[in-house]
Amino acid sequence: MELTKYGLFFTRATVGESLYGDAAALAERLGFGAVWLGGSPRLPTVRPMLEKTQSLIIATGIVNIWQYDPALLAAEFADLEAEFPGRLLVGIGIGHREATTEYARPLAKTREFFDGLAAAERPIPRDQLVLAALGPKMLELSAERSRGTHPYFTPPAHTRAARELLGEGALVAPEQAVVIDDDAAAAASAARTYASRYLALSNYTDNLLRHGYTEADVADGGSDRLIDEIIPQGSAQVAAAAANAHLEAGADHVCIQTIGTEGVPEREWAQLAAALQL
After folding, report:
1. How far apart are CA 145 and CA 74, in angstroms?
2. Does a structural domain hold residue 46?
């Protein structure tokens, strides 16, 4: 399974489920190696993306383990794998205490979920699993029980720390949000609207505090410095530079999410592909 250096990330809220197949087909034509579907998708919803592409890797970023039975996830994976061998990468994650009433013992719960996947009648191969991980213990678990990690809402400093902790064997595939818009005011507004959701979640803010940001940076919707560094805004070249900063910090693959768009962002993705020289 070859992810290549660059992928694209979107959610049902931005693209819409009816457009999944068209979005994946465009990503493949433009030369991206993978498409990541966020928002804790049900696994069968990725089928149109597999059907409309030839070799593109389809990944989940991520399946929330509080919302899925591991045996069911493994069975759904096996059905798709039989039809589209080697093209599905299952990203799983613990989610956030603010969003899950049952949230407790995140590390133990994640281990239990991996155990459930391994005990399934048709287990998901380790090389087709990744774990959303931010802190050191969850990062270590990602390498222990899966192909590696898919961090979200993180700076290159986190990517560098993850690579140093995990060594060269594990996959490090961070998400990078960008706003491709020449209107500086509109771009900044889109970035702040996007960031507001994540700055209300302690897993993300705690992680930012571990990697060079201060309490003032994460308070009151985020400092200008934080917003500009976590969600770069401007041209496709600015977006490409942000993705490449993660690669330079040790990432194997970066999945880029264009913020402030609705439907399939054809213009932004085409400009991004050109800037990345795909």
Report:
1. 15
2. yes
**Angstrom distance (rounded) from CA 36 to CA 4:** 13
Does 138 fall in a domain? yes
Domain enclosing residue 18, as ranges: 6-275
Reading the block at residue 224, the tokens are 């200008």
The pTM for the full model equals 0.96
Under a CB-based contact definition with an 8 Å cutoff, are residues 179 and 231 in contact?
Answer: yes
- Digit-by-digit pLDDT tens for the chain (278 residues) are 889 999 999 999 999 999 999 999 999 999 999 999 999 999 999 999 999 999 999 999 999 999 999 999 999 999 999 999 999 999 999 987 756 666 679 999 999 999 999 999 999 999 999 999 999 999 999 999 999 999 999 999 999 999 999 999 999 999 999 999 999 999 999 999 999 999 999 999 999 999 999 999 999 999 999 999 999 999 999 999 999 999 999 999 999 999 999 999 999 999 999 999 99
CATH number of the domain within which 118 lies: 3.20.20.30
Q: Which of 109, 154, 116 is nearest to 135 (CA)?
A: 154
In a domain, 229, yes or no: yes
Number of domains comprising the chain: 1
Q: Does 135 map to a domain?
A: yes
